[in-house]
Design brief:
The protein is of the alpha/beta class. It has one domain (5-283): 4-Layer Sandwich (Metallo-beta-lactamase, Chain A). 22% of the residues lie in helices and 23% in strands. The protein has helices at residues 5-14, 50-54, 94-103, 116-121, 187-194, 208-212, 223-230, 251-261; strands spanning 21-26, 32-35, 40-43, 81-83, 108-112, 127-130, 136-138, 141-147, 164-170, 173-177, 198-202, 235-239, 266-267, 276-279, 282-283. The strands form two sheets. It has an eight-stranded mixed β-sheet with strand order 6-5-4-3-2-1-14-15. A seven-stranded mixed β-sheet has the order 7-8-9-10-11-12-13, with helices on one face. A hairpin with a 5-residue loop joins strand 1 (21-26) and strand 2 (32-35). The protein starts with a helix and ends with a strand.
């Protein structure tokens, strides 16, 4: 495993970086902590076994965890904002959010507007609706939601997107977290306009078997670096792998492809328990 949850939780709490840096911790799947001296932002954390428990009697879609829970969420201090990209349970995990809110009572919960009713029903009264292209501003970070296509956009009758990516501007360092998304018309051009420094992108793609079972799709290990190259994004972090045996990808495929076909894109393969420091000019691991 290489880490102890108690020790890693403490290590995160005691870590720091400078004003021109972002400290990045991967906590599995698409879950990240992005930390600066001003703000700590959690995105799409899955720190429980709720999906494993709920599918235990459904062998056709049985989810089996490939990694232990890396930290103790009810002990994770200093989280200012929680961003949820959409309502699928490996991105919106009620147990994780409740545990974090019990420890971080002032933590704001930001999630797509169509997910607000679901959040209220789950007991979250501090939800802030995220609407595509409408900036949510805080001291130290500006958050711009953008549409994500997860097989379809599935917009509501009022035109709101239930799947979002987030562009976070940390005092001039711009990070794009895609949530769950497939390549769609206009995405590359939008990212070009936004002048992204770092993209955090899923690489697990899809298969006909998973689609037949009702799973939705993501960028694959070739599309993710392609999006960065075409979108003029110099650096990326792959994610959405090594969480569930039923829906994963070999990150080595991404490494081999990026090294041989996308040399202009710098990357960091995340490791549980090991942070990286990102600055405007790249990774400082």
């Amino acid at each position: 495993m290489g880490y102890n949850p108690v020790e890693l939780t403490k290590k995160i709490a005691e870590s720091s970086c400078t004003m021109e840096q972002i400290q990045i911790w991967w906590l599995g799947q698409s879950g990240f902590l992005l930390r600066t001296p001003k703000k700590t932002v959690a995105i799409d954390l899955y720190l429980s076994t709720t999906i494993e428990d709920s599918t235990s009697n459904q062998p056709w879609k049985r989810h089996i965890r490939m990694m232990p829970i890396p930290v103790i969420p009810e002990k994770l201090e200093g989280v200012d904002l929680y961003l949820c990209s959409h309502g699928h349970r490996d991105h919106y995990d009620v147990a994780t959010i409740q545990a974090l809110q019990n420890q971080n009572t002032e933590m704001d919960l930001i999630l797509p507007k169509p997910c607000m009713e679901m959040a209220k029903n789950d007991g979250f009264t501090n939800g802030i609706p995220a609407i595509a292209h409408e900036i949510i501003g805080y001291d130290g970070v500006q958050i711009k939601p953008i549409p994500a296509k997860h097989n379809a956009f599935d917009c509501t009758e009022t035109g709101d997107y239930p799947y979002l990516g987030y562009i976070l501007d940390f005092d001039g360092i711009r990070v794009y977290h895609a949530g769950d998304c497939i390549l769609h018309d206009g995405l590359v051009e939008l990212l070009q306009e936004e002048k992204i420094d770092l993209a955090i992108l899923p690489i697990n793609g899809s298969t006909p078997e998973l689609i037949a079972k009702g799973f939705q799709s993501n960028f694959d290990y070739k599309e993710a670096p392609f999006i960065c190259k075409e979108g003029n994004i110099p650096f990326m972090i792959p994610c959405h792998f090594d969480m569930f045996t039923i829906n994963t990808e070999q990150v080595g495929k991404f490494v081999n492809y990026a090294n041989h076909q996308m040399q202009d894109v710098g990357y960091w393969v995340p490791i549980i328990g090991e942070p990286c420091i990102f600055a405007k000019n790249g990774f400082q691991i």
